[in-house]
Amino acid sequence: MEVKGKIVQVIGTVVDVKFPPESLPPIYGAVYVTNPSINDKKDNLVLEVAQHIGDSVVRCVAMETTDGLMRGQEAIYRGTQITVPVGRGVLGRVLNVVGEPVDDGPPIITEKRYEIHRPAPPLTMQNVKIELLETGVKVIDLLEPYPKGGKVGLFGGAGVGKTVIIMEMIHNIAMHHGGISVFGGVGERTREGNDLYLEMKNSGVLDKCALIYG
What we know:
The chain is of the alpha+beta class. It has two domains: 3-81, Thrombin, subunit H (Beta Barrel), CATH 2.40.10; 87-112 and 123-213, 3-Layer(aba) Sandwich (Rossmann fold). Helices cover 17% and strands 31% of the residues. The longest helix has 16 residues, at 162-177. The two termini are 28 Å apart.
């Protein structure tokens, strides 16, 4: 399946694309555009459909810079969402939101790719046994222990040590529990992401973790 459209408006990271009325991409559909200001590769910019605004136009959010895009430029929808590689091949690697490596390493080769918008696992696949997770951070384990499978929020101002605690937990889970962690950096500054990558590499736990930055 391949449906071609035309860019009708670009406002920052928001791009409006007009498609044939009978072939509108669904919400979360991935639309591909060639942006020469990024590199010389074809279809190097991914737009994610966020809204149908009428008149056969979809409003999309760009996953990279839109500098260099023009009205009337061709955009292609191939019937899929954004997908990312999954499996052992992503351990020790840094990926962007569209699943491309950004750590100057070799291409990531995995047997499977999953769409980033997937339904939650059914309750029958989840462990209902109540068990505490030993993080190795003594003040957490003593005063506010975390349950396995639970959700935890860390709130604090800039520079107070939230990332340090997370990195310590990733280290302890890898070294003492043989576990694997996925770190998602949403809105992380480049410096913080680079520092975290280097610190994890130096501590020897990078091969037990995948880092995704959006």
